[in-house]
């Protein structure tokens, strides 16, 4: 395993325990129609479900009248919220194309922000004293619980996961923590990647600057901080991902620099693809979504298992 993918000694045990804790929780979903975003072809519901710590998480489910291509879980960027016009519009388009789509706000974000308010120092530093206390532990648990619920609602054994920036990082780690649920991954300019590189560079752009600022104030805590963050870094998760994974990189991205994204792509040992955008910074790429749709269609169509093969416990 490359040094940049080196895991803490208890990494696998840590995530096995998180997965086990999630699977012990019934989602207890509460659903209500969303008349604002529904259309003749797509029904839309606001869904809240219970995750670990009895935390209720919110999301929106898009159900096409004639599902054709499986189900997609989409996860939000660092400061995004699912119920933004741009995201809801994209999800409805995906549903119109034939996917069941579930966009969720994990704890500390959007409609679920009150469930775990991020620290004033930033989300990456929320609970930085230990991996058990870090907000990302709960966030990843919420993503896995969302995947379980979506598979149940869509009647499929495996789903696709995707996202942009933080959402891309969460999609990758969801595929690592719950490989039995994930059949395809699309990750556009993934954040949560290669913290040590950004700390060494004293990165000042985007949320990585939270790490720089903290270490400058607390230099003696640098190794402890980076060790905690390594549980929530896509690099040590990458070799655990089995699902075919499509990664997008913007070669002018100052927030998630291309060398960190390319290091992630190199670390993946699953079937993988890379889309490189020479003139793109840290933005949403409609072209990436075009390729993502085809990626999910191709790989979810190859899933032959039935829902009965997967013991969801729901």
Characterization of this structure:
It is a single chain. The protein has 314 residues and is an alpha/beta fold. The chain has a single domain (3-296), classed as Rossmann fold (3-Layer(aba) Sandwich), CATH 3.40.50.1820. Helix content is 35%, strand content 18%. Helix 1 (11-23) packs across helix 3. It starts with 10 loop residues before the first helix and ends in a 13-residue tail after the last helix. 48% of the residues are buried.
* Main CATH class: Alpha Beta
CATH topology value: Rossmann fold
Let me know the number of strands: 9
Biggest pleated sheet: 9 strands, mixed
Widest sheet, order of strands: 1-2-3-5-4-6-7-8-9
Please, how many helices? 10
The backbone outline, from C-alpha atoms, is globular
Q: Under the CATH scheme, which architecture would be assigned?
A: 3-Layer(aba) Sandwich
- Give the uncertain stretches in residue-range form: 304-308
Overall average residue pLDDT: 92
Helix content: 25-40%
In what range is the share of β-strand residues?
15-25%
How do the SSEs run, as a string of H and E?
A: HEEEEHEHEHEHHHHEHEH
Distance between the ends: 36 Å
Computed structural class: alpha/beta
What is the radius of gyration computed over CA atoms, rounded to a whole number of angstroms? 18 Å
CATH superfamily annotation: Alpha/Beta hydrolase fold, catalytic domain
Integer count of domains: 1
Short description:
This protein is an alpha/beta fold. 35% of the residues lie in helices and 18% in strands.
């Amino acid at each position: 395993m490359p040094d940049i993918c080196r895991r803490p000694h208890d990494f696998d045990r840590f995530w096995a325990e998180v997965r086990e804790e999630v699977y012990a929780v019934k989602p207890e979903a509460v659903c209500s129609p969303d008349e604002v975003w529904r259309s003749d072809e797509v029904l839309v519901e606001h869904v809240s479900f219970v995750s670990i710590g009895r935390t209720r998480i919110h999301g929106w489910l898009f159900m096409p009248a004639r599902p054709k291509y499986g189900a997609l879980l989409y996860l939000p960027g660092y400061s995004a919220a699912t119920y933004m016009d741009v995201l809801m519009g994209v999800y409805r388009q995906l549903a119109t194309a034939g996917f069941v789509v579930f966009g969720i706000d994990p704890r500390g974000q959007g409609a679920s922000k009150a469930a775990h308010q991020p620290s004033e120092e930033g989300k990456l530093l929320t609970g930085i004293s230990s991996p058990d206390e870090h907000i990302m532990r709960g966030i990843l648990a919420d993503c896995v619980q969302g995947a379980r619920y979506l598979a149940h609602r869509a009647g499929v054994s495996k789903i696709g996961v995707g996202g942009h920036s933080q959402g891309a990082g969460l999609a990758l780690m969801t595929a690592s923590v719950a490989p039995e649920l994930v059949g395809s991954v699309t990750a556009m300019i993934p954040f949560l990647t290669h913290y040590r590189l950004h700390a060494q560079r004293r990165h000042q752009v985007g949320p990585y600057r939270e790490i720089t600022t903290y270490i400058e104030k607390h230099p003696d805590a640098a190794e402890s901080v980076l060790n905690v963050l390594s549980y929530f870094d896509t690099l040590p998760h990458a070799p655990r991902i089995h699902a075919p994974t499509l990664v997008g990189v913007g070669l002018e991205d100052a927030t998630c620099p291309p060398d960190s994204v390319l290091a992630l792509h190199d670390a993946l040992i699953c079937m993988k693809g890379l889309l490189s955008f020479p003139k793109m910074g840290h933005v949403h790429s409609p072209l990436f979504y075009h390729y993502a749709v085809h990626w999910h269609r191709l790989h979810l169509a190859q899933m032959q298992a039935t829902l009965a093969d997967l013991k969801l416990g729901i």
